[in-house]
């Protein structure tokens, strides 16, 4: 299985799908989520872009290092992965914490970020986001990793989706647990959420940006994405009606259509 070692020697698992001559799209997952959660998107994208998915440090098949982690540190991991794969510049798509990582990358090395998608993300952990993301830490500390993935499901998916698709919901939970983060990895990523703040720097982004959010997102509500859209001049904004935090899982056809149409304008 393919791994690369990032600058501190940590082993990161990745997969590359699509012709390597195509423009590169690096997809970055959120807290405790492994790269395979992007597969509904990869299948839609890979004929037009080279898709790189990976497990962040502490998750799935990647190595765990002691917490805490930082958004800047995980942005560095992603740049190191790009270096190892010979990718000088890439389009980025990040979900939740992945969006925060992508934003950090777009500010730190604008020449390496061709476009940026931020899905269900935010600008800085203050107020309600500090409260909601703090609940993730409370679930982990009180119940451990197994409890965490079950307890956070109602925070990630809309009530309608969960009630209409209960068997699928249990399959998603089984997949999450089978590709789980370690305790230290999950704690490290949650701490990265809690220390994150790009409110003063987001306006520096020069790459094209798409901001999307689920209408029913209760972890990082629509207002969090509106703040990103307002901060980044010229960014595009889309709300997925009826969807929760994981809109790409709830409404994959609509998500893929919206994002692929936007990407085509910037390839």
Order of helices and strands: EEEHEHEHEHHHHHEHEHH
Tally the helices: what do you get?
11
Radius of gyration: 17 Å
Helix content: 40-55%
The fold-level CATH name is Rossmann fold
The tally of domains stands at 1
Structural class: alpha/beta
Which consecutive residue ranges, at least 5 long each, have pLDDT under 50?
Answer: none
CATH-scheme architecture: 3-Layer(aba) Sandwich
CATH homologous superfamily?
Answer: Alpha/Beta hydrolase fold, catalytic domain
Largest sheet: 8 strands, mixed
Shape descriptor reads globular
Q: If strands are numbered along the chain, what order do they take across the biggest sheet?
A: 1-2-4-3-5-6-7-8
**DSSP E strands, number:** 8
Taken as a percent bin, the fraction of beta residues is 15-25%
Cα(first) to Cα(last) distance is 29 Å
**Overall pLDDT confidence:** 97
